[in-house]
Specification:
By secondary structure, this protein is an alpha+beta fold. The chain has six helices and five strands; from the N terminus they run H-E-H-E-H-E-H-E-E-H-H. The longest helix has about 35 residues.
């Protein structure tokens, strides 16, 4: 096997692995990791892993090819320089929250672009997703709103019944 064929086979293997990660994730976050130290990057990866997300570094040209093969939007204009890619099992908000905290403490790791369920996201949209409360808090808030509306309706019905009872007693 010639060296050139081996290199092409290696490239195809890397692109296939990237494609597998992209297809297994409902989101892709692209961050700039210029100037990030090894200990900082290790901590970022560990924090992301705790949320079910992974951070990958790959050649931008390989990622462009994998994204195209996945049928996702062309974000190649944002894939310049030192770029890291965050994918995960399900929750983009948790992953974005970790990257937001990382960027706040290190002043590094700015968002470049993202993709969520096949739609391109601007950096400010990803930032906003990371600022949302946790899923549990959102569900508790929703439940409180539903319970509040039900309780208000029950009070109105009770007041009506009480008023009807008073008018019949007179």
């Amino acid at each position: 096997m010639s060296t050139e064929m081996k290199v092409n086979a290696d490239k195809e293997t890397i692109v296939a692995q990237l494609l597998e990660k992209i297809n297994a994730s409902p989101f892709l976050l692209v961050i700039d990791y210029t100037g990030v130290s090894v200990p900082e990057f290790t901590k970022l990866r560990a924090d992301l892993a705790a949320t079910g997300a992974r951070c990958t570094v790959a050649k931008n040209s390989f990622m462009v090819k994998a994204i195209a093969e996945a049928g996702l939007p062309d974000i190649s204009a944002s894939l310049k320089g030192q770029t890291a890619y965050v994918t995960g099992d399900k929750d983009i908000c948790s992953a974005a929250k970790v990257v937001n905290a990382f960027a706040k403490t290190t002043k590094k790791g700015a968002y470049r672009v993202g993709i969520l369920d096949g739609a391109e996201l601007a950096p400010d949209q990803i930032q906003t997703l990371g600022e949302l409360p946790s899923r549990e808090i959102l569900l508790a808030t929703l439940l409180g709103t539903i319970n509040g509306a039900g309780a208000a309706l029950a009070r109105v019905i009770k007041a009506y019944v009480d008023k009807q009872g008073e008018s019949q007693a007179s």
